[in-house]
Amino acid sequence: DALVETARSLTGCSSALVSLVDVQATWHVASAGLNVRRSEPEQSFCAHAIAEPRFFEVADLAADPRFASHPLVAAPSGLRHYAAVPLVLEGCAIGTLCVLDPAPGALSTQARGQLANLAGVVCELLRQRQHRLRLEEQNERLRDLTRASGDWAWELDATLNCRWVAGDFEAVTGLTLARVIGRPVHADPLVDASGLDRSPARSFLDVLAERQPFSRVVTRLQTPRGALLTSHSALPVFDAKGEFRGYRGTTRDVTARVERELLLRDKTALQEASRAKSAFLSRVSHELRTPLNA
82 and 97 in contact (C-beta within 8 Å)? Predict the structure, then answer.
């Protein structure tokens, strides 16, 4: 809005628009002096302007057969003068910065240059917006990948201090980020598939000290919500000179899964014991009913 006000002021025209053109319509996303938000393709000045590489101007719209019947031109005190600079993004003209006036005329060379400079500012704002949207989309992809591979993602520096955590760390553990960011990794004990300490005993720090990729390393993490079994996967990070810079990885809470597996294992063992007991009693009963041979 500030840019179109500036365009109107610099050129002396009564109206200015930033417009984006697509197949269905022309959308006037910023305007000053003209209350219009959308134009149909057949009534769009800008649809003609984007075909020009640098500058498009019609000194008298009423005298141009392409625009003479346009409602904004044919109306009493209608528009007469139109000038526009295409907005080019990644090699494609996607819209215009234009000025309009009810008096016929033409922009001076200086005014043309000023309009082109303002169009360059609009293009830069559009590029920045596009870049921000792409970053947001990329971040959303990373969040989805994090959720798919673990409950939270993390990064360690070369001294194995925590630099960054994203995801459901606080929700899962009950710990705050302030408790871990900038602090060294704890020597949480490694556990086996049953949640029991490994023998010989090893810690998560022992795994990190190897500076090698690892996958599904399970540790016991003490939290305000009790001991959690957490599965870690990570890759070491090295710079262009081969210097170790830390780790990037993901962690998933597998406590419930381990507990289910243990219950299933215990249930299976009980069923096996029950079948063995039934088989033994059946055999003993059969032998007791069978007379001994002389």
Answer: no
Asked if 45 and 86 touch (Cβ cutoff 8 Å), the reply is no
For the record, the structure tokens of 110 come out as 């200086």
Nearest C-alpha neighbor of 40 from the set 26, 61, 58: 26
| CA pair distance 226, 236, nearest whole angstrom | 29
Class of residue 268 by CB neighbours under 10 A (exposed 0-12, middle 13-18, buried 19+): exposed
Side-chain-facing half-sphere of 127: CA atoms under 13 Å: 13
Q: Which amino acid appears at position 60 of this protein? A: D
| Cα 133 → chain centroid | 8
Give 192-229 pLDDT, tens digit per residue. 888 888 889 999 999 999 999 999 999 999 999 999 99
- 120/62 Cα distance (integer angstroms): 29
Local structure of residue 177 (DSSP, 8 states) = G
- Beta strand 38-39 pairing with 81-89: unpaired
The pLDDT tens digits for 2-33 are: 999 999 999 999 999 999 998 889 999 999 99
Q: Which of 12, 5, 106 is nearest to 55 (CA)?
A: 106
* pTM, full prediction: 0.58
User: Nearest-CA neighbor of 250 among 159, 165, 128, 162?
Assistant: 165
* DSSP string covering 254-279: -HHHHHHHHHHHHHHHHHHHHHHHHH
- Alpha-carbon gap, residue 150 to 231, rounded angstroms: 8
Interval 235-266: pLDDT, tens: 999 999 999 999 999 999 999 888 776 566 65
